[in-house]
Design a protein that fits this description.
The chain is built from five helices and four strands, in the order αβαβββααα. The chain is an alpha+beta fold. It has a four-stranded mixed sheet with strand order 2-1-3-4, with helices on one face. A hairpin with a 4-residue loop joins strand 3 and strand 4. Helix 2 packs across helix 3.
Length: 174
């Protein structure tokens, strides 16, 4: 399929997944105020162009609003869960500096992201068995409809090997 439109590389899944800003859960709304012309808004324009699609992809629960040419200086405003507002000035900054600053103050840490990924992986596959530290279940007997563990509940006689051999020996004698 040919890539159509202006700068289609920004809409590829590979590009969107490379975004490194994942906001904390308490960030609910992000507003971007910038100008479409002027040297002081250059970093803000590049931030909007390169990073906003990645931020939208990585933070699907986040509402993002853009305000163009409504303010003399560019800034970001974040509205948090508890009603608090965080203001980030973007005037005269490069888009990479803006990205690093936003990630530092409102982004999740690498440790938190890894812990969430591990929890998601652990919970995503109910077929894994092992210690509770790593898996949802320790034994197949914990699944409903499965035979209980013989260590905790005795099996019916028909399911034990001793009973089968006795029955086979009795059938052979007759």
């Amino acid at each position: 399929m040919p890539m159509k439109g202006r700068f289609p590389i920004r809409r590829t899944l590979e590009y969107l997944q490379k975004g490194d800003i994942v906001f904390k859960n308490r960030v609910k709304v992000m507003t971007v105020n910038y100008n479409t012309s002027g040297e002081l808004s250059d970093g803000a324009r590049k931030f909007v162009f390169f990073n906003i699609p990645q931020i939208q992809y990585k933070n699907q629960w986040l509402q993002i609003m853009m305000f163009k040419n409504m303010t003399p200086s560019p800034f970001l405003r974040f509205y948090l869960e508890d009603g608090e507002q965080v203001l980030v000035d973007m005037e005269g900054k490069d888009y990479q500096q803006i990205t690093q600053h936003v990630k530092k103050i409102l982004g999740k840490t690498e440790g938190a992201l890894q812990a969430e990924a591990q929890a998601r992986m652990r919970a995503s596959n109910p077929a894994n068995f092992g210690p509770r530290k790593y898996c949802l279940r320790e034994c197949i007997c914990e699944v409903e409809g499965q035979v209980p563990c013989p260590g905790t509940t005795p099996l019916p006689k028909e399911m034990t090997g001793k009973h089968r051999t006795l029955m086979a020996a009795a059938a052979a004698q007759e």
